[in-house]
Amino acid sequence: MGAWSAPDDIVARLLTVRNQDFAEIAVPRIVIAECKQEVSTFNPVPSTYEDFRLRQGQAALDYHRNVREEVGGALSVFDEVGSVEVIPTFAASANTSGGLLATESFDRLSNDLLSRLAEAGRVDAAYFALHGAMQAEGENDPEGYLLQEARRILGEDIPFVVSLDLHGILTDRMLEHANAIVAFHTYPHVDFFETGARSADLLLKIIAGEAHPVTARVKIPVLARGDEMITETGSVSDCIQLAQSIESSETGLSAGVMWGNPFTDVPELRTNSFVVMDGDKSAAKEHAIALAEQFWHHHKKMQVPLTSLEDAVRQAAAVTSGTVVMMDAADATSSGASGDSNAILREAIRQGYRGRLLAPVVDPAAVQKAIVAGVGGTIVTRIGGALDPDRYHPIEVEARVRSLSDGRFQSESFGWHWDAGLTSVLQIENITLVVGTRPVSLFDRSWFFANGQNPQQFDMVVVKSPHCESHMFADWCAKLINVDAPGATSANLNSLGHSICARPIFPLDAGVEFKPVADIFCRT
């Protein structure tokens, strides 16, 4: 993969033009807001206001200056440049992905954010850190709504730069109200901070009159999953490298491919290529089409070969040395699933699997029983299906309570603070379960480690994430199996029941054709 400009390079470049180009604006006032969540339409459990980590004003800045997320990356640029005034407003980031955001919760969240924008007074520019795959009851484009309403409050003339996850769903309304967008270049995501820095760099160029962004977007009728989406090793790396090359060109400002979240069933769900150029519509169109054609060239490979539950457990049992990782991406809480699947556990018990098995599951009632029994006590409880009972049927087990915790821990990947609620480790003969009260992202090993469990000491480990950074599991496990289990985030996309996304689209429909057309968005 190519490299983007490091924050130090950005700062050095901006410092050379700061005095002369910002003179007309004196000290630009830049407002910052954050609102991030990824949703699975197929998770029956609504998300609520209480599922978000919320910070306002100075508290938002204090937090983000100490974590490597998008806002932190932007602040690193603004702080070093110095001749800008940062106006913090509202920062909301979901504890993890989930089901549709309940109407009253979205109303409250959006009102909080927009009211803080209204209190900001006169501003010269705005940076928004969004995800792109939110969905609320009654609102299929929350990010577009927030940007539209922010325009009403802040004005039509000031520049908006928006950073997005490449799993975001890029809607017309988002593009109409943003001067430019900037998206992650990595999956699994490791460039949160750098994406924020790129966004701040671009926003300051616009303020200084150095850039006049024009955006071209191409709609690609593909829902993509699988190893080919890993940007270091998969076929999509060709697209990302091309995007980085475009972005680093003399007139390139931003470029990328956003393949959306296939579990967020909204009308504009699809893959998009986009290119932001400095005033050159023709070049923007040409590059966006080239990116789209590159993606389409590989699209048939961008699905996950899955192994049935029965075969997956049978294959795991045949491995005599080392750890088998069972990738249960269908119940990936970081993609919006409920986290209460017991499908692999059930099949392992049915087949009489005798290896040491480690699995995570969300089951509040089981945790409460463990708390009553205390460490060392024995409980009879049902496991699984606590949140999504139509998919997962509970298993009754007798278990020993090995430990109890408050469920608060730090992510191994980024040091983020996560909260799984009250948590218990339960032992059922050869099976060890880490049982939480509410879903939490599981794209690394931190929940296992926080509860005293080292995955390398087990014969089978259930991992509820489509992909983790390779050193988490793939580099050391004896075998990794992508399991065709039921769930709200199943890579078996035809099993989910999309009903409102635009059709035809691959792989939901046969014979999908693609003729790239670039749409132009420009606010200047």
Please describe what this structure looks like:
With 524 residues, the chain is α/β, with parallel strands linked by helices. 28% of the residues lie in helices and 23% in strands. It has a 9-stranded mixed beta sheet with strand order 10-20-11-19-12-18-17-14-13. A 6-stranded mixed beta sheet has the order 2-3-1-4-5-6, sandwiched between helices. The chain is globular.
Features:
single chain; 524 residues; alpha/beta; 2 domains; nine-stranded mixed beta sheet; 13 helices; 21 strands; disordered N terminus
What secondary-structure arrangement, pairings included, does this model have?
Elements lengths: L6 H15 L7 E8 L15 E5 L1 H7 L5 H12 L3 E10 L8 H16 L6 E6 L11 H13 L5 E5 L7 H6 L2 E4 L8 H16 L5 E8 L16 H11 L4 E7 L12 E8 L2 H18 L8 E2 H10 L5 E4 L15 H8 L6 E6 L1 H10 L4 E6 L11 E11 L2 E3 L6 E3 L3 E6 L2 E6 L9 H5 L9 E4 L15 E6 L33 E4 L3
Parallel strand pairs: 1-3, 1-4, 4-5, 5-6, 10-20, 11-19, 11-20, 12-18, 12-19
Antiparallel strand pairs: 2-3, 7-9, 7-21, 8-9, 13-14, 14-17, 15-16, 17-18
Helix pairs in contact: 1-3, 1-7, 3-7, 4-5, 8-9
